[in-house]
Amino acid sequence: MRSTRRRTWALLAAAAVVAGLLAPVAVSAANRAGSGAAAPRAGAAAPRAPEPEPSGAECRTSVEGSRVVAFCHNPYPTTDLVQLHTECARWWDVDADGGAVAVQPGRTVKLEDRCWKEVGSAWVSHSVS
Q1: Quick one: DSSP state of residue 76?
Q2: Strand, helix or coil at 35?
Q3: Does the pLDDT at position 4 exceed 90?
Q4: What is the pLDDT of residues 48-58, one digit of tens each?
Q5: Residue 54, C-beta contacts closer than 8 angstroms, at least 6 positions apart
Q6: DSSP letters of 82-126?
Q7: What is the Cα–Cα distance from 38 to 59, expressed in whole angstroms?
Q8: Residue 93 phi/psi, 5° resolution?
């Protein structure tokens, strides 16, 4: 008689443990079913991820002789950090990376740099803050 009771309690305890382990899976499945998200059918297109909002300043860079000037305008609602990089044409001329400048929404900034002789290339890097 005692062994039957022990088996019954052991069976009930095991059922409770299994129910406790399966509860999160059942809740997750119920949330997916309630949100209307169904698994895509064979041949159906997968749902697209939302596209990020546009951001970043538009920069126009000009080189005249040994001077580089860049104007950066930010039409977007997020601040953009811009940095002017200048690579000089001569091997002995020091290349330069200007400091990062914050371009507030709706603002324009002017970035300048120079080489001793000719400019090899110049570009502006961005990092949205």
Answers
A1: S
A2: helix
A3: no
A4: 877 766 678 89
A5: 76
A6: EEEEEEESSTTSPPEEPPPEEE-TT-EEEEEEE-SS-EEEEEEEE
A7: 44
A8: -85, 135
Query: Which residue in the block uniquely carries the two structure tokens 């290349």?
Result: 95
Distances (CA, A) of 79 to 99, 123, 124: 16, 19, 15
* CB burial readout 54-88, b (16+ within 10 A) else e: ebbbebebebeebebbbebebebeeebbbbbbbeb
Q: Are 66 and 89 in contact (CB under 8 A)?
A: no
Query: What is the C-alpha to C-alpha distance for residues 125 and 85, in angstroms, rounded to an integer?
Result: 8
Q: What's the mean per-residue pLDDT of the chain?
A: 81
User: Per residue in 66-101, pLDDT tens?
Assistant: 999 999 999 999 999 999 999 999 999 888 899 999
Q: What is the Cα–Cα distance from 120 to 96, expressed in whole angstroms?
A: 12
Neighbouring C-beta atoms of residue 101, cutoff 10 Å? 17
**110 bridge partner residues:** 71
Q: Residues 104-108: what's their mean pLDDT?
A: 94
